[in-house]
Amino acid sequence: MIRRTFIALAAGAASLAFIGHAAAQETIKIGASAPKTGPLAAGATVSHWPNIQLWVSEVNERGGLKVGDQQMKIELVEYDDRTSAETAVQNIQRLATVDNVDFIVTPYSTGLNVATAPLIARYGYPHITTSAITDGVEEFAGRWPNSFWMLGTSKELAEGTAAALKKLMDAGEIGNKVALVHVADAFGLELAGAGKPALEAAGFEIVYEASYPLGTQDVSPIISQAKAAAPDAFVGFSYPGDTFALTEQAQIQGLEVGAFYVGVGTSFPAYAGRFGAVANGILGAGGTNPDDEKIKEYRAKHKEVTGADADYWASAVTYSGLQVLEQAIEAAGTKDREAVVEAIKTGTFDTVMGEVKFENNVNRNLWTVGQWKDGVFYGVAANGIDGAIEPVKKDGWE
Amino acid sequence: MQIIVTGILLGGTYALIALGLTLQYGVARIMNLANGETFVAACFIAFWLFTAMQINPLLGLLVIAPAAFAVNWAIYSVLLKPLVDRAKNRGMLEVDSILATFGLLFLLQGLMLLVFGGSYFSYTFLAERFMILGNPFGLNRVVAFGAAVAIAIGLYFFLYRTRQGTAVRAVAVDPNSARLVAIDVAKTAAFAFALGGALTACGGALLSTFYTFNASMGVVFTMKALIIVIMGGVGDIRGAVLAALILGITETAVASLIDPGLTIAATYALFIIVLLFRPQGMFGRQTT
Amino acid sequence: MTLDQSEIRIGLLGAIAIAALATLPLFSQGYYLSLGVNLMLYAALCTAWTLFSGPTHYISLATAAFFGLGTYTVGLWVDHVPFFALVLGGGVVAAVLAGLVGLATLRLSGVYFVIFTLGLAELVRQLVSWTQTKVSTRMGLYVFTDFTEMHIYWMLLALTVAVFVTGWLIGRSRLGFAMKIIGNDETVARHVGIDTARAKIILFMISGAFIGIAGAISAPRYAYIEPPSAFNPMISFLVVIMALLGGTKRLWGPLVGVVPFTILFDQVSAQFPNHTPIVMGLAFLAIVYLLPDGVTGRLEQLRARMKRTENAVGEEKVA
Questions:
Q1: How far apart are CA B205 and CA B56, in angstroms?
Q2: C137 falls in which pLDDT band (50, 70, 90)?
Q3: What is the pLDDT of residue A12?
Q4: pLDDT per residue over B56-98, tens digit each?
Q5: What's phi and psi for A147, nearest 5 deg?
């Protein structure tokens, strides 16, 4: 049984290698390694893999990438890193030295991007991250000159949140008392670390603060404690499972706040699907301008090709990162990695997120806060992008 | 007061997670690492019944429980029975069943990924306010708790008041002696394994009404179930229920009074303490 | 110390094998080296695990706890203390934890010990996470060194050798003798005056220390260290499974589990990126049913059968 499997495996490998060889003339090989299993698989399934699928299908439908005077179709090589750094490192090595791919698209999550960055740098591939959010990006950009950071820093995201709340306070919609909770992992901790001083600087008083372990879904004690502190606004730097749970508990317990903010997952289509009209007025991380023609077109294509709705934040950023790679390769007119890295550094790119330009390898134009309005998640705060609408007060839970 | 009610409700949730495993492990002697996958599979089926066919998850139990019973019976007789037959002692069976169910875990998870994809799922069912002693609680949690109580009582009556239940308990205590009093041990073990699977599936279906889940989450539930089963004493229904309630109340108390960041640490600390002082479970008798 | 003929032969063969393995980075700096690092990591972990679990039959799931402590020791102080001191430090920290655990739990038997160690790994991870939320505003630690895959490979190779040598020395020592008796029958061991608890604790500490060191060596490879990756429970499970697959009766048993398992896992995930879990699950079930005593068990069976045929042939000649 095992021997037969091995023979089948070997035969499969041989035929793959043969096809790869026969078509080598006119294709460009792109490698991808990201979680398909493990704790981060769910997030990657929503905002990472579908965009790679969409991008490859779009480019190939057009006839391929224009490299110099050749049209090259994309051949995608994909691996599952099982949400583990060891496997991710090994996958990158395999892509670089066994599959000899021409380019590598970004891994998923801060941790896996940082763990693979030294290797990707060693092989000189352009590394355009679209799912890493940390305050270290400037340092990383200096350390690995081939790396580009699209999703900004936790500080920007947290300050955006404080700014959006301040708008509501200045408009007299909410008072100055905030309850702040966060998930106890890198993302939650960095956002809370940056968000606290930003909220205080904006004139807010933090009346309740707590962290909870990764994976917690039984959050009713947290909401009831927060409720007891009688806040005017609730801010949760949370992950998908707890984002849903915090919202449901707030609704059940009737947490009376004028602003309710939750983190990753708020911008998922499933969020509106679950909460319906109750989602109206809820603030969350990220955002896009859904009225923008490009975004509209992108969302329609995403639905058409992958069968699922794009989320309103990381999806579009991931896709725009792929567009940057595509346009840089075409601009450089070669598969030469160094030339493409240079093209990314100096170029300006026209993406679904608008114009992207890197300052010292970091993208500064991004959405920070969005808000649900009639089943659509609108950006209400952004740096360097137009099209944000004004945040409004959350009006009850019924 | 709110802490205690919230804690008891949470304890009901945990009891749902653990009751199936305590039967599978305590009676059939299978340390089923794929228990969480059964649980998540039931979440998916409840989700599918609700969204595609508009079938209320409570009615869905009528489909899910028998289906899970049949599937688990098949798993036991096809996959696990050969291991039971070939094991020379309990230790060997333990090692073999850990390895085999680990493979099963992958297989089930892979099938779920294939069918449903890897993203998050949730739906709204009875997410309404329900007042207990002047405090608001989620009606779906209250319903799940009620179902947990019903299941636990039903199980208790079955085990302590019926012939077949007595046979199950006898096998749990000592398979060899059970054979001497003309109990069909193999059949009873298969029955207990299948019943455990059905209970786990009921738990999953009920939890899906207020949990956000995805195909990779099974192991989370397996761990929780293992803790409760060991704390309560392997194969001891009353112990498992009590352990689940204690955990629920402890977690809620720690989250409310000390720091929500320490809830899981508190769980494990409590678990370790119980293991150190009463390794045979809270109701267990000293065996040596 | 005296060595007999076969020991010298094994030693020489071992030295040649080690020298051959050490040249791997000369042939591949890429994928095969990475695969080599993973192989070597699990070879070290599984053999260290077997040092304790082989003779005592205790299945420990605390590997992730020791490993994570080693990783964190490096992560916390890499900018202040020389790396090699930290590697040893990681071993010491893990050994201390192992000692404490041993004191508290080794009177537990069988499955209770399994679950306890699993709980312990989670508890340590939760406490580390929580402490970080209180003392720091960021969760991840960065470990940037000049080490490349090659260096990590060599360090892990050296560690694996050290584990083997230690295992061999233990086998020759009073402790090893005591463990043999304990493994056969603990009651007998106690009656002949062996302090069984002490012997087990020492062994657990040695095993834990090696696992901690392996974690410390791996830290530069992660570069970014977070509790979920450093204390990943999968590490514990994989170690147990590979070791059991190989067989724990011999010191080299786990090795014959690690090599095929790692390569199979790797091949499967390369060929079936979208169906890895299904294929893995099936492969796993096949192994359990076809190789009931692990690879070493099967090898020994084969050897016994060959001997029998040899004898049979020999007898025929005589006749």
A1: 10
A2: low
A3: 46
A4: 888 889 999 999 999 999 999 988 888 888 877 777 787 778 7
A5: -100, 145
Domain boundaries, chain C: 5-254
Q: How far apart are CA C21 and CA C157, in angstroms?
A: 8
The chain B residues in contact with chain A (CB within 8 A) are: 2-3, 6, 10, 13, 109, 113, 117-124, 127-129, 135-138, 210-212, 214-216, 220, 251-252, 255-256, 259-261, 263-265
| Single pTM value for the model | 0.83
What are the residue ranges spanned by the domains of chain A? 2-149+292-352, 154-288+368-383
List the chains bordering chain B where 3 or more Cβ pairs fall under 8 Å: A, C
What is the rounded distance in angstroms from the CA atom of residue A87 to the CA atom of residue C279?
17
Task: Return the SS3 of A309.
Answer: coil
The amino acid that residue B59 corresponds to is: L
Choose among B226, B180, B175, B202: nearest CA to B32: B226
Of residues A11 and C188, the one with the higher pLDDT is C188
The full set of domain ranges for chain B reads: 15-218
| Model pLDDT, residue A8 | 47
Q: Are C34 and C266 in contact (CB under 8 A)?
A: no
**One-letter amino acid of A295:** I
Looking at beta carbons, which residues of chain C come within 8 Å of A142?
Answer: none
| Tokens describing residue A68 | 């110099």
Q: What's domain A154-288+368-383's architecture?
A: 3-Layer(aba) Sandwich (3.40)
Q: Tell me the ipTM for this assembly.
A: 0.83
Q: How far is CA C11 from the centre of its chain?
A: 21
User: Which residue from A46, A210, A252 is facing B138, i.e. has the nearest CB?
Assistant: A252
Closest CB to A248 among B109, B127, B251: B127
Give C 162-221 residues with CB within 8 A of chain B: none
Q: pLDDT per residue over A260-308, tens digit each?
A: 999 988 998 889 888 888 899 999 998 888 888 899 999 999 999 998 8
Q: What is the DSSP letter of A391?
A: P
Question: Model confidence at C288, in pLDDT bands (50, 70, 90)?
Answer: confident
Domain A2-149+292-352 sits in CATH at: 3.40.50.2300
The CATH architecture that domain C5-254 belongs to is: Orthogonal Bundle (1.10)
Does C276 contact A36 at a Cβ distance shorter than 8 Å?
yes
